[in-house]
Amino acid sequence: MLDELRTEVRRLAAASGRDDILSAIDDHRVPNDAPVRVLVAGETKRGKSTLVNTLIGRPLLSPVGTDVTTACWVEFAWGPKDDAVALIADPAAPGTPRRVRFDVREVERYVSVNHTTDAVLGVEIRVPSPLLEGLVLVDTPGVGGLRAGHSAITLAALRHADALLFVCDATQPVLAPEVEFLAAAVVRVPTVAVAVTKCDANPGFADVVEETRERLAEHPALAHVPVFAVAAPLADRAAETEDPAVAAKLTEISGIDQLVRTIKANAAVGGEALRTANAARRISAAAQVLAWQARESTLADRDGGSDLRARIEQLSRELADGQAVSDLIRARLAGLRTDSPHSFRVAARKIHAGYRTEAERGPATQLSTLAPRMVADLTACATETFESVAVDTRALLRGVLGDLGVDLPPAVLDLELAAPDLTRRDKGVQSTYSVEVFKTVVGLAVAVPAVLSVLSGAGLVAAGIVLAASAGWWRLRGETEQQRRTQLRTWVDTALDDAVEGFDAEIHRRIRSVEAHLDAVVPHLLRARRDELVRLEHERTDEHAATERHRVETQLRLESTIAQLTGLAARADRIAEGVRP
Question: How far is CA 169 from the centre of its chain?
């Protein structure tokens, strides 16, 4: 069905001279050898890091223990030799952390709450593990578990992952907050699996596992999520045992092999479903763009061509008065420059108030993790604000272009169209260049290159700002409880002020980049649109020399094409919805 739709849309795109759309709807497939990205998440002290170490086959790789809590993201991937890089937040360039290489044996210094001495955003570890030849494991921060901040950050990262491995343990069945998190996760990632750890430490683990399955089954979206009983220490013992029969038995009992096989198999199926859904959405978008272009072709016949001439004259005036266009751009961006920092400031102050109170009279047992928990909550807040900036930037730019007489269909933004050669006057140049402007402007507003396989964009910029503002929290270790509380109160106030200041500066810097880019490209966009309308006017003049019968036949053919394309778009949408992970 999907191939038939693609073939038909390709035929219509070719007939319209839209080579860019032909390329955009080709079947973009992820290489078969691309590693499966698995995000590992769960509440604190559930055995996440221990399980990750066992999966990799390196029991002592990532620090574990009752007094060890992971403070940052840790990504494990294959490499020909041991290698490790820490990503340190840079106050001068949020979203572009400094890369510091270190010995793998020193990983605790960078990832443990009690040992870190830097504003570490994440750590990349490469080891020659057989498992990692087809897999990338990302261990999420342990501080705060599934509290609001960490939960929001993890859910955002899932959009870049192929699978979620959720970890709970055999001390009790899955809890309501964990089920709530899983329900939110299952709509963001193609594959979800649950590992119940510490089964070797609880003789009654089977009852806990069964109860966990039953609780998940009560939620329709989680009814088919597989639950595995695992015992990481048994797998570790198997790796150390010289007797092959004993090692095989221990491995089987540990449940690790079955867990890995299921994750890889399900992630492959889920990834294929995701690619099919995305392909269907691209085909739908292409059909909608072509239908819009066909409608635009009827513009010359509206009101005897007077509307067409009026729009050409408007564009000519705007091209002659570049300062007015520049002033319009700045006036529209002014609201974004003030509203976004204000939204972050208000939300951040609410977070600050709660942690200020906790620093003064909260439980003493939670003081050691107060700072990284506040960092997580501020990061989640900043991420949400930056994501709003991306949405607002799109809407703002659409409004600016609309005021300037440059319209384009919303669906064009869902296509990966190649940047056009503006020296040509082919059909489609205006809409193609419009989408290129949209993507560049939104990118200038919030985007950055990914530094971890699941962390990029708004989340990375936000984390960079907050971590840089929160520098020094690892030194808050007063000898007495009162000293720690005093240090924390001061730090909480300073971290808030620095985060707000950093966010404000970064927004202003990015909006200045947007202004400069639009000043440079909008005149080209206006000229391309005017040339396209002039071409339509010339075609209309030529058509008037033809017979009335030919004009009617052309109009009917366009209307039929529009109806066909609209139907193709609807069918592609139904396919995308049907295979959505």
Answer: 29
Dist CA 460 CA 466 (whole Å): 10
Measured distance CA(214)–CA(224) in Å, rounded? 11
Question: φ and ψ at 411, to 5 degrees?
Answer: -65, -20
* 58: nearest Cα among 116, 139, 118, 114: 139
What angle, rounded to 10 degrees, do the helices at 244-254 and 256-296 form? 50
What DSSP character marks residue 34?
A: P
User: Cα–Cα distance between 123 and 72 in angstroms, integer?
Assistant: 7
Tokens encoding 428? 């489609």
Residue 548 confidence class, pLDDT cut points 50, 70, 90: very low
Percent of the chain clearing pLDDT 70 (strictly above): 77
Find all residues with CB under 8 Å of 11, minimum gap 6, and list them.
none
What is residue 424's three-state secondary structure? Answer: coil
Q: From CA 396, how far away is CA 290, in angstroms rounded? A: 24
Amino acid at 180: E
Q: Angle 18-23-24 (CA atoms, 0-180°, nearest 5)?
A: 95
95: alpha, beta or left, given left = phi > 0 and alpha = psi -120 to 50?
left
How many CA atoms are closer than 13 Å to the CA of 97, on its beta-carbon side?
30
- CA gap 519, 228 in Å, rounded: 57
What is the pLDDT confidence band of residue 228, given thresholds at 50, 70 and 90? very high
The pairing of beta strand 98-102 with beta strand 163-169: unpaired
Q: How far apart are CA 194 and CA 40, in angstroms?
A: 10
Phi/psi of residue 86, each to 5°? -95, 140
Q: What is the pLDDT of residue 200?
A: 87
Residue 426 structure tokens = 């082919």
Does this model's pTM top 0.85? My answer is no
pLDDT of residue 346: 95
With b for 16 or more beta-carbon neighbours within 10 A and e for fewer, the 481-514 pattern comes to eeebbebbbebbeebbebbbebbbebbeebbeeb
Closest CA to 222 of 273, 263, 183, 265: 183
Q: How far apart are CA 291 and CA 562, in angstroms?
A: 5
Residue listed under structure tokens 């966009």: 525
Compute the half-sphere exposure of residue 532: CA atoms within 13 Å on the CB side of its CA. Answer: 23
Computed from CA positions of residues 225, 229, 235, 236, in that sequence, does the dihedral angle turn out positive or negative?
Answer: positive
